[in-house]
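2024-03-11 09:14:02 INFO receiving multi-entity request
2024-03-11 09:14:02 INFO entity count = two
2024-03-11 09:14:03 INFO echoing inputs for audit
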Amino acid sequence: MISASHLTKRYPGGYEAVKEVSFDIEAGDMVFITGHSGAGKTTLVKLIAAIERPTSGSLIVNGQNLAALRRSAIPYLRRHFGLVFQDQKLLFDRSVLANVLLHLQIVGQPPKEAVRRARAALDKVGLLERERANPIALSGGEQQRLAIARAVVNRPTVLLADEPTGNLDTESASAILDIFASFHQVGVTVLISTHDPHWIRNYQPKVLQLDHGRLV
Amino acid sequence: MMHSWLFQHRVAVSSAVRRLWGAPLNTLLSLLVIGIALTLPAAGYLLIENLRVFSARASGTQQISIFLEREAGRKGVAEIESRLQSANPGRWRFVPREEALKRLQESTGMAEVVASLPRNPLPDAFVVEPAEGSPEVLEALRQSFTAWPQVAHVQLDSAWVRRFDALLRLGKLAVTLLALVFGAGLVAITFNTIRLQVVSHAAEIEVARLIGATNAFVRRPFYYFGALQGALGGVLAALLVGLGFKLLDAPIAELAALYGGKFALAGPGALDVLLLAVIGAGLGWLGAQLSVSLSLRQLNG
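2024-03-11 09:21:47 INFO inference complete, emitting structure
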């Protein structure tokens, strides 16, 4: 499903965030990308999500080589992903429900079906009763759950999360990771980057450990 | 697939309406600026149209006098009469030289002068009232009559119409230039409004792109916003022109009555309102397109 070979990302100025990384992730895997701050976890997530382009090497996602992917094809590739970020990237000018609906509007889902699916996604993360609230009124944990609802609403094949528990207390973080684990159990490929290795014990995932951009 | 596309457009339209509705003061001010920018060329255009109609109506009473050679005789008169019948340029009548002289005698102060003449110096003539009164048609008829045999002189009594027509053409050119300038102004206004919109929706654009929005999806609401704003500005311009014409109508009619004529200003009709809305929408769309391209490029760094 995701295959990297000698993947390198060098930023302007010469800094290499990811160096000669190779790995294979199968459909249905749950993978933790770990490493210290600055190890290259976020860059690797961005490369997989086609937010960044590889400098060299190959990265094949769903059979498409991202190094050679046309710019216009990137949105369609991203529709197969559910992306969750540490800072959630929620929109505070609209309701919880509208935040989730955005994903379905982008793919042109009929309004009634979109609302039904958005509510189902909110129900999965326990936020259905807050559908009319503004995201600003939610706690950090709830905001992250909302971000997950938005990520999963279009039934992605890959759930990709960059430090989703970074700003949360232990209890909320555990709840969030449990939600990811529940999606993994139903066959979704889950990739989570985290600098906190103690979560690995709880979920028995595959681990990609990065150190200064290299896989160790 | 088609349904998805339609739903995406529906989302874009409702998003554009929400953005317009969401900042009523900004919307109102933008509409006023666009409305005023379109009002001037629209008013100029309608005024010229009114004057054109007036000119056409006035030139409907235009006459072309065909003076025959003095020695044309009855045969010459019959020849011209026959040619007029086949050319059928409009209404016409024959003025014999005797009748012309009699009319001249009846003119104030001319009786003695005419009496002193040894013989009638006036020729037979035909007076033609053309069915079509446009300067181009009148000139074509004049040239045609001039080429006929036995015709000494053709008098086209429409110099003022031609001058008026030239003036109207000049006015049309001025209005066109004005429309270009104000049209560019409308594009600039929309450009600026949309630029601010893009900046204020930067977060939404970023999120939408991250979760799979195409460029078209991101751009569409701004295009609809520009077009909608332009169209509403166009309708406002039509209302302003209509109101202005309504206010001017009575004084102009009074002025025309003082000169013994009739003149009523015709305000914008339904088609004019539609045309203004379409022009406004088109220019708004253009401004939005230019602005979104530049702003998104800047946003992407």
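2024-03-11 09:21:48 INFO post-check: The longest helix of chain A spans residues 170-185.
2024-03-11 09:21:48 INFO post-check: Helices of chain A lie at 41-48, 74-78, 96-106, 111-124, 140-152, 170-185, 200-203.
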